[in-house]
Structures are given as structure tokens and as C-alpha cells.
Amino acid sequence: MRAKTLNIDGNKRECVLVCGGPSFKVYSSPGINGWIIVIKGKRPAVTNDERVSRYVTLRYQPLNQQEDIKRRFNEEIVKGIV
Fold first, then answer.
1. Which of 48, 59, 31 is nearest to 69 (CA)?
2. What is the model's pLDDT at position 9?
3. If you write DSSP's letter for every residue of the chain in order, what string do you get?
């Protein structure tokens, strides 16, 4: 497990890396209801967005939906909706 201390809303929190790519990382932390997403060049943001949850659990999603989940996540989340 890779852990990192992130500043979330002025509070330092110990977070565990869940998944990531070259331009983003998704973390989990005790006491936070949702995912912490860090997009390259931006501050960490907490989100409960279902698209993030589906991306994190991608390997458990139906095979015929995986490419669409990846595409939507990259287009809508990584490119700036968060």
C-alpha cells in the first residue's frame, strides 16, 4: 500500500492510493465519505461521484461496460468536472 499525507480542507490526512494514472490519483482516507481525487496541477478534491466509484472498481464491472467507464471517467472527471 502506498500512503501519502494530503491537505484536505486545511486538515492533514493520511491517505492510501487506490488507483491512478499519469495525470490523476485516487485516494481513500478514514473519516472521509467519498474518494479523494488529485488531478495533476490541482488541489485534492473529495467526491462521491459514481463515475469515480465505478472506475475504482473497474475490474468488477461487466466487460462490455469497462471501456465506456474508462472513457467517461477520463473525459468528465480527469478533464475537469471535479
1. 59
2. 85
3. --EEEEEETTEEEEEEEEEE-SSEEEEE-TT-SSEEEEETTS--EEE--HHHHHHHTGGGS-HHHHHHHHHHIIIIIIIII-
* DSSP β-bridge partners for residue 26: 19, 37
CA distances from 33 to 28, 40, 64, 67 (A): 9, 22, 29, 27
pLDDT in tens, 12-56: 999 999 999 888 999 999 999 999 999 888 889 999 989 999 999
- Pairwise pLDDT comparison (75 vs 61), residue with the higher score: 61
Side chain identity at 47, as an amino acid letter?
T
